Protein backbone atom coordinates (compact mmCIF):
# COMPACT_ATOMS: atom_id res chain seq x y z
CA UNK A 1 0.00 0.00 0.00
CA UNK A 2 2.82 2.36 0.83
CA UNK A 3 4.30 1.73 -2.62
CA UNK A 4 0.92 2.43 -4.28
CA UNK A 5 0.53 5.65 -2.32
CA UNK A 6 3.97 6.82 -3.45
CA UNK A 7 3.13 5.97 -7.09
CA UNK A 8 -0.14 7.91 -6.82
CA UNK A 9 1.67 10.95 -5.48
CA UNK A 10 4.26 10.76 -8.30
CA UNK A 11 1.48 10.45 -10.87
CA UNK A 12 -0.33 13.50 -9.49
CA UNK A 13 2.87 15.56 -9.51
CA UNK A 14 3.59 14.58 -13.12
CA UNK A 15 0.04 15.48 -14.19
CA UNK A 16 0.27 18.86 -12.47
CA UNK A 17 3.60 19.56 -14.18
CA UNK A 18 2.17 18.73 -17.62
CA UNK A 19 -0.94 20.83 -16.97
CA UNK A 20 1.12 23.83 -15.88
CA UNK A 21 3.32 23.45 -18.94
CA UNK A 22 0.33 23.83 -21.32
CA UNK A 23 -1.27 26.44 -19.08
CA UNK A 24 1.74 28.75 -19.50
CA UNK A 25 2.24 28.14 -23.22
CA UNK A 26 1.06 30.85 -25.63
CA UNK A 27 0.27 29.40 -29.04
CA UNK A 28 0.77 32.82 -30.63
CA UNK A 29 4.34 33.26 -29.38
CA UNK A 30 5.83 31.69 -32.51
CA UNK A 31 3.89 34.03 -34.78
CA UNK A 32 4.52 37.26 -32.90
CA UNK A 33 8.26 37.11 -33.46
CA UNK A 34 9.52 38.94 -36.51
CA UNK A 35 12.07 37.07 -38.65
CA UNK A 36 15.61 38.38 -38.64
CA UNK A 37 15.41 39.48 -42.29
CA UNK A 38 11.82 40.51 -42.72
CA UNK A 39 10.80 41.67 -46.19
CA UNK A 40 9.05 45.05 -46.55
CA UNK A 41 5.27 44.94 -46.39
CA UNK A 42 3.27 45.88 -49.49
CA UNK A 43 -0.23 47.10 -48.88
CA UNK A 44 -3.01 45.32 -50.72
CA UNK A 45 -5.97 47.71 -51.17
CA UNK A 46 -8.33 44.77 -51.67
CA UNK A 47 -7.60 41.99 -49.16
CA UNK A 48 -10.51 40.01 -50.56
CA UNK A 49 -8.71 39.69 -53.87
CA UNK A 50 -5.25 38.85 -52.51
CA UNK A 51 -3.58 36.24 -54.68
CA UNK A 52 -3.22 32.88 -52.95
CA UNK A 53 0.21 31.92 -51.73
CA UNK A 54 2.04 29.64 -54.09
CA UNK A 55 3.02 26.31 -52.54
CA UNK A 56 6.44 26.56 -54.17
CA UNK A 57 9.14 29.27 -54.44
CA UNK A 58 8.11 31.90 -56.98
CA UNK A 59 10.57 32.70 -59.74
CA UNK A 60 11.91 36.26 -59.54
CA UNK A 61 14.60 38.21 -61.39
CA UNK A 62 17.65 38.46 -59.16
CA UNK A 63 17.70 42.26 -59.58
CA UNK A 64 14.15 42.58 -58.25
CA UNK A 65 11.94 41.68 -55.33
CA UNK A 66 8.82 39.49 -55.46
CA UNK A 67 6.85 39.67 -52.19
CA UNK A 68 5.72 36.19 -51.10
CA UNK A 69 2.31 37.62 -50.21
CA UNK A 70 1.91 39.01 -53.74
CA UNK A 71 3.50 36.46 -56.05
CA UNK A 72 2.07 38.08 -59.20
CA UNK A 73 4.01 41.34 -58.65
CA UNK A 74 7.68 42.05 -59.33
CA UNK A 75 9.33 45.18 -57.93
CA UNK A 76 12.40 46.39 -59.81
CA UNK A 77 12.06 50.11 -59.05
CA UNK A 78 14.79 52.42 -57.68
CA UNK A 79 17.58 49.92 -58.43
CA UNK A 80 19.78 51.84 -60.87
CA UNK A 81 18.91 49.39 -63.65
CA UNK A 82 20.00 50.20 -67.18
CA UNK A 83 18.29 47.26 -68.83
CA UNK A 84 15.06 45.35 -68.24
CA UNK A 85 15.65 41.95 -66.58
CA UNK A 86 13.95 38.81 -67.85
CA UNK A 87 10.36 38.75 -66.67
CA UNK A 88 8.98 35.43 -65.33
CA UNK A 89 5.88 34.10 -67.06
CA UNK A 90 3.56 34.44 -64.05
CA UNK A 91 4.11 38.19 -63.42
CA UNK A 92 1.05 40.44 -63.82
CA UNK A 93 2.27 43.69 -62.22
CA UNK A 94 5.72 44.92 -63.22
CA UNK A 95 7.32 47.94 -61.55
CA UNK A 96 10.45 49.34 -63.23
CA UNK A 97 10.10 53.06 -62.43
CA UNK A 98 12.96 55.33 -61.32
CA UNK A 99 15.82 53.60 -63.07
CA UNK A 100 18.12 54.43 -66.00
CA UNK A 101 16.47 52.19 -68.60
CA UNK A 102 16.92 53.47 -72.18
CA UNK A 103 15.32 50.71 -74.26
CA UNK A 104 12.33 48.35 -74.19
CA UNK A 105 13.33 45.26 -76.20
CA UNK A 106 11.00 42.31 -76.73
CA UNK A 107 13.48 39.79 -75.32
CA UNK A 108 12.84 40.20 -71.56
CA UNK A 109 9.09 39.78 -72.17
CA UNK A 110 9.34 36.57 -74.19
CA UNK A 111 7.69 34.32 -71.61
CA UNK A 112 5.13 36.83 -70.30
CA UNK A 113 1.50 36.32 -71.30
CA UNK A 114 -0.71 37.91 -68.65
CA UNK A 115 0.77 41.31 -67.77
CA UNK A 116 -1.88 43.73 -66.50
CA UNK A 117 0.26 46.67 -65.37
CA UNK A 118 3.66 48.01 -66.47
CA UNK A 119 5.32 51.00 -64.82
CA UNK A 120 8.33 52.32 -66.74
CA UNK A 121 8.05 55.94 -65.60
CA UNK A 122 11.07 58.06 -64.63
CA UNK A 123 13.57 56.40 -66.97
CA UNK A 124 15.42 57.49 -70.13
CA UNK A 125 13.45 55.63 -72.78
CA UNK A 126 13.42 56.99 -76.34
CA UNK A 127 10.77 56.12 -78.93
CA UNK A 128 13.12 54.43 -81.39
CA UNK A 129 14.42 52.21 -78.60
CA UNK A 130 11.04 50.53 -78.06
CA UNK A 131 10.72 47.36 -80.12
CA UNK A 132 7.72 47.51 -82.44
CA UNK A 133 4.72 45.71 -80.95
CA UNK A 134 6.39 44.93 -77.63
CA UNK A 135 3.31 46.17 -75.70
CA UNK A 136 0.67 45.13 -78.23
CA UNK A 137 1.02 41.41 -77.51
CA UNK A 138 -0.20 41.84 -73.92
CA UNK A 139 -3.92 41.32 -74.46
CA UNK A 140 -4.67 41.82 -70.75
CA UNK A 141 -2.65 45.01 -70.22
CA UNK A 142 -4.79 47.62 -68.44
CA UNK A 143 -2.31 50.25 -67.20
CA UNK A 144 0.85 51.54 -68.86
CA UNK A 145 3.00 54.24 -67.22
CA UNK A 146 5.63 55.91 -69.41
CA UNK A 147 5.70 59.45 -67.99
CA UNK A 148 9.01 61.21 -67.33
CA UNK A 149 10.96 59.63 -70.19
CA UNK A 150 12.39 60.93 -73.47
CA UNK A 151 9.72 59.75 -75.92
CA UNK A 152 9.40 61.78 -79.13
CA UNK A 153 6.39 59.92 -80.51
CA UNK A 154 3.22 58.32 -79.24
CA UNK A 155 3.96 54.60 -78.64
CA UNK A 156 2.30 52.40 -81.27
CA UNK A 157 0.81 49.83 -81.49
CA UNK A 158 -0.85 49.29 -78.12
CA UNK A 159 -3.24 46.55 -76.92
CA UNK A 160 -6.98 47.18 -77.16
CA UNK A 161 -7.36 46.19 -73.48
CA UNK A 162 -5.55 49.34 -72.27
CA UNK A 163 -7.55 51.61 -69.93
CA UNK A 164 -5.00 54.04 -68.45
CA UNK A 165 -2.08 55.48 -70.40
CA UNK A 166 0.27 58.04 -68.85
CA UNK A 167 2.72 59.79 -71.20
CA UNK A 168 3.28 63.10 -69.43
CA UNK A 169 6.69 64.80 -69.18
CA UNK A 170 8.11 63.49 -72.46
CA UNK A 171 9.04 65.13 -75.77
CA UNK A 172 6.11 63.95 -77.85
CA UNK A 173 5.50 66.34 -80.74
CA UNK A 174 3.53 64.15 -83.13
CA UNK A 175 0.71 61.65 -83.20
CA UNK A 176 0.57 59.37 -86.22
CA UNK A 177 -2.80 59.10 -87.90
CA UNK A 178 -3.58 55.70 -86.43
CA UNK A 179 -1.76 56.13 -83.11
CA UNK A 180 -4.95 56.07 -81.07
CA UNK A 181 -6.91 53.63 -83.17
CA UNK A 182 -7.87 50.31 -81.63
CA UNK A 183 -8.06 51.65 -78.05
CA UNK A 184 -11.79 51.41 -77.28
CA UNK A 185 -11.28 50.93 -73.53
CA UNK A 186 -9.10 53.95 -72.77
CA UNK A 187 -10.60 55.96 -69.89
CA UNK A 188 -7.61 58.07 -68.88
CA UNK A 189 -4.97 59.62 -71.17
CA UNK A 190 -2.24 61.90 -69.84
CA UNK A 191 -0.23 63.89 -72.40
CA UNK A 192 0.74 66.85 -70.20
CA UNK A 193 4.16 68.46 -70.51
CA UNK A 194 4.92 67.51 -74.12
CA UNK A 195 5.37 69.47 -77.36
CA UNK A 196 1.93 69.05 -78.93
CA UNK A 197 0.60 71.93 -81.05
CA UNK A 198 -2.58 72.55 -83.04
CA UNK A 199 -1.26 70.90 -86.20
CA UNK A 200 -0.87 67.60 -84.35
CA UNK A 201 -4.54 67.60 -83.34
CA UNK A 202 -5.99 68.53 -86.76
CA UNK A 203 -6.56 64.86 -87.46
CA UNK A 204 -8.96 64.69 -84.47
CA UNK A 205 -7.05 61.85 -82.78
CA UNK A 206 -9.33 61.67 -79.71
CA UNK A 207 -12.70 61.50 -81.48
CA UNK A 208 -12.94 57.69 -81.48
CA UNK A 209 -12.04 57.18 -77.81
CA UNK A 210 -15.66 56.52 -76.86
CA UNK A 211 -14.92 55.65 -73.21
CA UNK A 212 -12.40 58.42 -72.48
CA UNK A 213 -13.21 60.10 -69.16
CA UNK A 214 -10.05 62.11 -68.40
CA UNK A 215 -7.79 63.92 -70.88
CA UNK A 216 -4.72 65.85 -69.71
CA UNK A 217 -3.17 68.19 -72.29
CA UNK A 218 -1.65 70.77 -69.95
CA UNK A 219 1.75 72.34 -70.61
CA UNK A 220 1.80 71.92 -74.37
CA UNK A 221 1.77 74.41 -77.27
CA UNK A 222 -1.92 74.57 -78.08
CA UNK A 223 -3.44 77.83 -79.30
CA UNK A 224 -6.96 76.56 -79.96
CA UNK A 225 -9.30 74.14 -78.24
CA UNK A 226 -8.68 70.48 -79.18
CA UNK A 227 -11.24 69.40 -81.81
CA UNK A 228 -13.90 66.68 -81.60
CA UNK A 229 -13.42 65.38 -78.08
CA UNK A 230 -15.61 62.37 -77.19
CA UNK A 231 -18.89 63.01 -75.37
CA UNK A 232 -17.83 60.62 -72.59
CA UNK A 233 -15.25 63.13 -71.29
CA UNK A 234 -15.60 64.21 -67.65
CA UNK A 235 -12.21 65.79 -66.75
CA UNK A 236 -10.33 68.10 -69.12
CA UNK A 237 -6.99 69.70 -68.29
CA UNK A 238 -5.65 72.41 -70.63
CA UNK A 239 -3.55 74.56 -68.29
CA UNK A 240 -0.37 76.29 -69.42
CA UNK A 241 -1.09 76.54 -73.13
CA UNK A 242 -1.70 79.60 -75.31
CA UNK A 243 -5.42 79.22 -75.94
CA UNK A 244 -7.07 82.59 -76.51
CA UNK A 245 -10.66 81.71 -77.39
CA UNK A 246 -13.40 79.16 -76.61
CA UNK A 247 -16.23 78.88 -79.17
CA UNK A 248 -19.59 79.31 -77.44
CA UNK A 249 -20.88 75.96 -78.70
CA UNK A 250 -17.67 74.07 -77.96
CA UNK A 251 -18.96 72.21 -74.90
CA UNK A 252 -22.37 71.32 -76.35
CA UNK A 253 -20.96 67.91 -77.25
CA UNK A 254 -19.45 67.44 -73.78
CA UNK A 255 -22.41 67.39 -71.38
CA UNK A 256 -20.66 65.12 -68.86
CA UNK A 257 -17.81 67.51 -68.05
CA UNK A 258 -17.32 67.69 -64.26
CA UNK A 259 -14.03 69.59 -64.02
CA UNK A 260 -12.38 71.98 -66.47
CA UNK A 261 -8.97 73.51 -65.84
CA UNK A 262 -7.71 76.21 -68.22
CA UNK A 263 -5.52 78.39 -66.03
CA UNK A 264 -2.40 80.05 -67.48
CA UNK A 265 -3.72 80.62 -71.01
CA UNK A 266 -4.50 83.78 -73.02
CA UNK A 267 -8.28 83.87 -72.63
CA UNK A 268 -9.75 87.38 -72.87
CA UNK A 269 -13.46 87.02 -73.54
CA UNK A 270 -15.76 84.13 -72.70
CA UNK A 271 -19.02 83.93 -74.69
CA UNK A 272 -21.92 84.19 -72.28
CA UNK A 273 -23.25 80.62 -72.35
CA UNK A 274 -19.98 78.79 -72.94
CA UNK A 275 -20.13 76.92 -69.65
CA UNK A 276 -23.82 76.07 -69.61
CA UNK A 277 -23.02 72.51 -68.55
CA UNK A 278 -25.37 70.50 -66.31
CA UNK A 279 -22.67 68.57 -64.41
CA UNK A 280 -19.81 71.07 -64.09
CA UNK A 281 -18.48 71.24 -60.51
CA UNK A 282 -15.05 72.88 -60.86
CA UNK A 283 -13.97 75.63 -63.26
CA UNK A 284 -10.44 77.04 -63.15
CA UNK A 285 -9.73 80.04 -65.40
CA UNK A 286 -7.11 81.70 -63.24
CA UNK A 287 -4.06 83.46 -64.70
CA UNK A 288 -5.68 84.59 -67.95
CA UNK A 289 -6.67 88.03 -69.31
CA UNK A 290 -10.40 88.04 -68.63
CA UNK A 291 -12.06 91.43 -68.38
CA UNK A 292 -15.61 90.24 -67.75
CA UNK A 293 -17.33 87.36 -65.99
CA UNK A 294 -19.74 84.92 -67.64
CA UNK A 295 -22.73 82.69 -66.95
CA UNK A 296 -22.28 80.25 -64.07
CA UNK A 297 -24.12 76.91 -64.37
CA UNK A 298 -26.26 75.93 -61.42
CA UNK A 299 -24.16 72.83 -60.73
CA UNK A 300 -20.84 74.70 -60.31
CA UNK A 301 -19.36 74.61 -56.80
CA UNK A 302 -15.80 76.01 -57.15
CA UNK A 303 -14.81 78.93 -59.39
CA UNK A 304 -11.20 80.11 -59.80
CA UNK A 305 -10.74 83.40 -61.72
CA UNK A 306 -7.71 84.82 -59.91
CA UNK A 307 -4.99 86.84 -61.68
CA UNK A 308 -7.12 88.24 -64.51
CA UNK A 309 -8.05 91.80 -65.52
CA UNK A 310 -11.41 91.98 -63.80
CA UNK A 311 -12.33 95.42 -62.47
CA UNK A 312 -15.82 94.46 -61.41
CA UNK A 313 -17.71 91.21 -60.81
CA UNK A 314 -21.08 91.60 -62.56
CA UNK A 315 -23.25 89.14 -60.64
CA UNK A 316 -26.14 89.65 -63.07
CA UNK A 317 -24.05 88.11 -65.86
CA UNK A 318 -23.15 85.20 -63.64
CA UNK A 319 -26.72 84.68 -62.47
CA UNK A 320 -29.30 86.31 -64.78
CA UNK A 321 -32.24 84.68 -62.98
CA UNK A 322 -33.07 83.02 -59.70
CA UNK A 323 -35.03 79.79 -59.41
CA UNK A 324 -35.89 78.82 -55.80
CA UNK A 325 -36.59 75.28 -56.96
CA UNK A 326 -33.19 74.95 -58.64
CA UNK A 327 -30.70 76.82 -56.47
CA UNK A 328 -27.16 77.59 -57.60
CA UNK A 329 -24.59 75.38 -55.84
CA UNK A 330 -21.59 77.75 -55.91
CA UNK A 331 -19.74 77.64 -52.57
CA UNK A 332 -16.28 79.06 -53.28
CA UNK A 333 -14.87 81.87 -55.47
CA UNK A 334 -11.25 82.90 -55.78
CA UNK A 335 -10.77 86.42 -57.25
CA UNK A 336 -7.40 87.61 -55.91
CA UNK A 337 -4.82 89.37 -58.14
CA UNK A 338 -7.46 91.15 -60.24
CA UNK A 339 -8.25 94.89 -60.37
CA UNK A 340 -11.18 94.97 -57.99
CA UNK A 341 -11.71 98.05 -55.86
CA UNK A 342 -14.92 96.91 -54.19
CA UNK A 343 -16.23 93.60 -52.88
CA UNK A 344 -18.75 91.60 -54.89
CA UNK A 345 -22.32 92.88 -54.74
CA UNK A 346 -24.49 91.50 -51.95
CA UNK A 347 -26.88 90.28 -54.66
CA UNK A 348 -24.43 87.38 -55.04
CA UNK A 349 -25.56 85.97 -51.71
CA UNK A 350 -29.15 85.96 -52.86
CA UNK A 351 -28.34 84.33 -56.19
CA UNK A 352 -25.71 81.98 -54.74
CA UNK A 353 -27.08 81.18 -51.27
CA UNK A 354 -24.55 78.40 -50.67
CA UNK A 355 -21.48 80.65 -50.94
CA UNK A 356 -19.21 80.12 -47.96
CA UNK A 357 -15.94 81.74 -49.02
CA UNK A 358 -14.84 84.53 -51.38
CA UNK A 359 -11.08 84.85 -51.47
CA UNK A 360 -10.12 88.43 -52.41
CA UNK A 361 -6.47 88.37 -51.37
CA UNK A 362 -4.48 91.22 -52.88
CA UNK A 363 -5.69 93.19 -55.91
CA UNK A 364 -3.68 94.81 -58.71
CA UNK A 365 -5.72 98.01 -58.72
CA UNK A 366 -2.84 100.15 -59.99
CA UNK A 367 0.31 99.56 -61.99
CA UNK A 368 3.13 97.95 -60.03
CA UNK A 369 1.17 98.27 -56.83
CA UNK A 370 -1.02 95.73 -55.07
CA UNK A 371 -3.82 96.71 -52.74
CA UNK A 372 -6.02 94.79 -50.37
CA UNK A 373 -9.76 95.11 -49.99
CA UNK A 374 -11.21 95.80 -46.58
CA UNK A 375 -12.04 92.09 -46.25
CA UNK A 376 -9.38 89.87 -47.90
CA UNK A 377 -11.46 86.76 -47.20
CA UNK A 378 -15.22 86.73 -46.85
CA UNK A 379 -16.75 83.86 -44.89
CA UNK A 380 -20.39 83.17 -44.29
CA UNK A 381 -21.30 81.44 -41.05
CA UNK A 382 -23.11 78.18 -41.58
CA UNK A 383 -26.51 77.31 -40.24
CA UNK A 384 -26.56 74.28 -37.90
CA UNK A 385 -27.96 72.18 -40.73
CA UNK A 386 -25.21 73.25 -43.13
CA UNK A 387 -22.56 72.65 -40.49
CA UNK A 388 -23.80 69.11 -39.92
CA UNK A 389 -23.76 68.50 -43.65
CA UNK A 390 -20.20 69.80 -43.90
CA UNK A 391 -19.13 67.53 -41.07
CA UNK A 392 -20.68 64.57 -42.83
CA UNK A 393 -18.77 65.41 -46.00
CA UNK A 394 -15.47 65.77 -44.06
CA UNK A 395 -15.17 69.41 -45.12
CA UNK A 396 -13.20 71.99 -43.18
CA UNK A 397 -13.49 75.69 -42.51
CA UNK A 398 -9.86 76.29 -41.54
CA UNK A 399 -7.99 79.44 -42.42
CA UNK A 400 -7.29 79.75 -46.18
CA UNK A 401 -4.35 81.61 -47.61
CA UNK A 402 -2.85 81.89 -51.04
CA UNK A 403 -0.46 79.07 -50.21
CA UNK A 404 -3.46 76.80 -49.63
CA UNK A 405 -4.25 77.10 -53.33
CA UNK A 406 -0.85 76.55 -54.88
CA UNK A 407 -1.77 72.95 -55.57
CA UNK A 408 -4.80 74.06 -57.57
CA UNK A 409 -2.56 74.80 -60.53
CA UNK A 410 -1.43 71.19 -60.82
CA UNK A 411 -3.09 69.12 -63.48
CA UNK A 412 -5.51 66.40 -62.49
CA UNK A 413 -3.96 63.67 -60.48
CA UNK A 414 -3.99 60.52 -62.60
CA UNK A 415 -5.93 58.72 -59.88
CA UNK A 416 -8.87 61.04 -59.76
CA UNK A 417 -11.74 60.07 -57.50
TrEMBL record:
<protein>
    <recommendedName>
        <fullName>Osteomodulin</fullName>
    </recommendedName>
</protein>
<feature type="signal peptide">
    <location>
        <begin position="1"/>
        <end position="15"/>
    </location>
</feature>
<dbReference type="Pfam" id="PF01462">
    <property type="entry name" value="LRRNT"/>
</dbReference>
<dbReference type="Pfam" id="PF00560">
    <property type="entry name" value="LRR_1"/>
</dbReference>
<keyword id="KW-0732">Signal</keyword>
<dbReference type="InterPro" id="IPR032675">
    <property type="entry name" value="LRR_dom_sf"/>
</dbReference>
<keyword id="KW-0433">Leucine-rich repeat</keyword>
<dbReference type="InterPro" id="IPR001611">
    <property type="entry name" value="Leu-rich_rpt"/>
</dbReference>
<keyword id="KW-0130">Cell adhesion</keyword>
<dbReference type="GO" id="GO:0007155">
    <property type="term" value="P:cell adhesion"/>
</dbReference>
<keyword id="KW-1015">Disulfide bond</keyword>
<dbReference type="Pfam" id="PF13855">
    <property type="entry name" value="LRR_8"/>
</dbReference>
<dbReference type="InterPro" id="IPR050333">
    <property type="entry name" value="SLRP"/>
</dbReference>
<keyword id="KW-0677">Repeat</keyword>
<dbReference type="InterPro" id="IPR000372">
    <property type="entry name" value="LRRNT"/>
</dbReference>
<comment type="function">
    <text>May be implicated in biomineralization processes. Has a function in binding of osteoblasts via the alpha(V)beta(3)-integrin.</text>
</comment>
<feature type="compositionally biased region" description="Acidic residues">
    <location>
        <begin position="388"/>
        <end position="409"/>
    </location>
</feature>
<keyword id="KW-0765">Sulfation</keyword>
<dbReference type="GO" id="GO:0005615">
    <property type="term" value="C:extracellular space"/>
</dbReference>
<feature type="region of interest" description="Disordered">
    <location>
        <begin position="388"/>
        <end position="417"/>
    </location>
</feature>
<keyword id="KW-0654">Proteoglycan</keyword>
<comment type="similarity">
    <text>Belongs to the small leucine-rich proteoglycan (SLRP) family. SLRP class II subfamily.</text>
</comment>
<keyword id="KW-0272">Extracellular matrix</keyword>
<dbReference type="InterPro" id="IPR003591">
    <property type="entry name" value="Leu-rich_rpt_typical-subtyp"/>
</dbReference>
<keyword id="KW-0325">Glycoprotein</keyword>
<comment type="subunit">
    <text>Binds the alpha(V)beta(3)-integrin.</text>
</comment>
<feature type="domain" description="LRRNT">
    <location>
        <begin position="59"/>
        <end position="93"/>
    </location>
</feature>
<keyword id="KW-0964">Secreted</keyword>
Amino acid sequence: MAILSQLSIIHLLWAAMVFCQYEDYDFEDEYDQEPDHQRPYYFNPNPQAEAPRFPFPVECARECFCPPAFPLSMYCDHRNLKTIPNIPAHVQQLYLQNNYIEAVPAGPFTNVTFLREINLSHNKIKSHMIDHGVFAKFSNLVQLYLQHNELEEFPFPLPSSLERLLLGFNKISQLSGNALEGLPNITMLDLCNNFLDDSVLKGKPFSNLKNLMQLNLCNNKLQTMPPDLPSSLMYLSLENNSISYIPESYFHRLPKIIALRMSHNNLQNIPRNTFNLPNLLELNLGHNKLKQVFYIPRSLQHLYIEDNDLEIINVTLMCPSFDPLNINQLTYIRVDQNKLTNPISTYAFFCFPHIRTIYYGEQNASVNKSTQLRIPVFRRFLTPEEFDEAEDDHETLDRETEEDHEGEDNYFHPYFQ
